[in-house]
User: Fold this.
Amino acid sequence: LLKSIFSFVVTVSWEGYPDFASVNKVVSANEKWQDTVEALGRFEKYIQDNPSSFARSQEAVVQYAMLFSKDFKAANMNILKAAFSIARTVIASCNAGPRACQPVILAALAKIHDKKLGSELFALLSVIAEKIGPDAVVAQVPFLVSSTQLNEGMAKSRVPAQQKAVLQYLRQLVEEFGATSLSLKPLLAYVMSPLVDSHRRSPQGLKNTHVDVKNSATAVLCALYRQLGDTVREMVSSSELGDLLKKAVLESLDKEK
Assistant:
């Protein structure tokens, strides 16, 4: 990380960003968050106005945002928003690739249920999906680190609000990009698989005991059904879901006819 940051600083200086040293000084001092946010705003504006200057350093920009926001976990909401905003700007303006986007996807999914961030993170994830494909977002869901259970993936998340928000975004992804643009196997694996085993993974999607989570999972299947028809019905019918749950899901699909 330090090597990448050093490379980023050298690149920025070489490309002629005149104010980076003063911006980084304010950010590093970490005295008043208002000053930090103002400095970061100037940095983001420079990226917007000069995207070609960052054509070779998108990943380093993301790493810098991670550095000053403590891996997108800053306690100060204003600094956290600034970090995500810089990440979105460099991804949208500088054609960032999968390596630059991956940590942003994970961080956005982990915070997607935050009421102060949710709508912004939905938009950020859609920008990423547009740049590198929606499957890149779906692929990160099993590896999602819960914001309250560090070092545990989404398969161990016990945060219903987080699970609900992730499912709501997956439904939006289906509606925005179309079911045919997505690999269904990883998507359905999260929505329908009974993730309860010897590793003590917490039930996800349809198997979750919280009604809101279960309903959000059903909504994803309904969105797929509206586009793919009986293919989705057949997948549900042949799944390992319990009989009562399977019956309830099929009834929801029937209402979409």
About this structure: The mean pLDDT is 84.
